[in-house]
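User: Hi! I'm working on a homework problem where we have to compare a predicted structure to a textbook description. Could you give me the structure for the chain below?
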Amino acid sequence: MLDWFFNGALPTAAFVTIEVVLLIVALAVAPRNRRPSSALAWIILIVVLPLIGLVLFALIGSPKLPKARRNKQRTMNGRIEERARTIEHVTDTHGSPPWLAPIARLNREMGALPLVDGNSARLLTHFDEQLAALVEAIDAAQRTVHVEFYILALDDTTRPFFAALEHAVARGVTVRLLVDHLGSLKYPGFRRARKALTRIGVDWRLMLPVQPLRGRYQRPDLRNHRKLMVVDGRIGFVGSLNIIDPGYEVAGNRRRHLRWRDLLARVEGPVVQEVEALFVTDWFSETDQIPGPRTLDAVADDDDPTTLLAQIAPSGPAFESENNLALFNSLLYAAERRISITSPYFVPDESLLGAILTAARRGVAVELFVGEIGDQFFVFHAQHSYYDELLQAGVRIFEYAAPTILHAKHISIDDSVSVVGSSNMDIRSFQLDLELMMLISGRSFTDDLKAVEDEYRSNSTELTLERWRRRGPFHGFVDGVARLTSAVQ
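Assistant: Happy to help. Predicted structure tokens:
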């Protein structure tokens, strides 16, 4: 009898006790500052796979950067807000929609940067012209070049970019450069880039470095995903581009002839100072130094109706709220006639999915551009899990033809409002990555972006509900599992 108790009942009781304790701990910790879906996914993982779940939660359980980093963001927000007080808020000189001003006010409350007038912008749609425009701007630099990219690599394709930086340094231009540590680490060209930057005298730093032996550590998947460049405080670039060959230096990509397609916007006017302010914020966060004195100098609104209203909207784990998600949802609910979304990684949370479905059901023409193929297995399948309900609601889904990976990130609303930048429509971009989106109001810019969307459409196949439902049951199973894992943040 005692043998049965010690060999059977006692281990079982111990196992049940451990599971109950794990459940209580998970219930106490996981729901804090999380969506219910994310908290439930963590609870299930911790209870079903305790060792794996606890290790992962210890590594990536906090979706915020360390307190000191968040304090730096608040410090810079205060400085930016002080400089911006003399800038007038948006007026109706451009005939912008009445719902734009409240959205701009929301962006300012969350990111401290105002909507400003007097801007011009040009879209660059292909890699060759994008790289050429960056090089041309660097070659014309007289004082400063500020560079910030998620991925930076020196290869045969990007060599002109590094040559331009070298020439700029040689003629006395101050070049500061930020690059995400883990975002670039896996590419061979990154090691070459680091050596070249040091050799030519660029003042460069890693963003969010994961170097625990040097006392520099935070959750390793909290990354700085922004892509920007500012020259002399006068010319700015924002978009989805990384400084690396469009095939991303991977042998498998070359065998499949994969090429990433991005969108870059070249801007001039007061909004460039906002891009500069974001660079200065990130530079201060990594170095404790504030370069410049050009952090959002006061400018007057320009009454020229041909110029653009523009606003930089930063977001990420350094902020208390999900700024980009709030911007996207606000735009989708404000739309009256049409919405066009381009996102390579489309894994919406409940609120964003609801905003898209609601827009489609109330008669707004909604289209979504995604890739026919993807480069991230779980994200690609999680994305697929939303197609059925989107198609049922009337959303038109266009799959950009392989072997191109459509990597651009932008939205156009009705006839005159657009956003372009680095943020995907997925939980990673909402919670884990530092991002930058540029809000623009102006018919000319939106027309240019609609022309880009027309080109996408001509290179895409429209997905129908009937064709989508013909996919095999195993595909649907993988989609569902991937959708569940996407909530573990």
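For your comparison, note the following. The chain has a mean pLDDT of 87. The first helix runs from residue 2 to 29. Good luck with the assignment!
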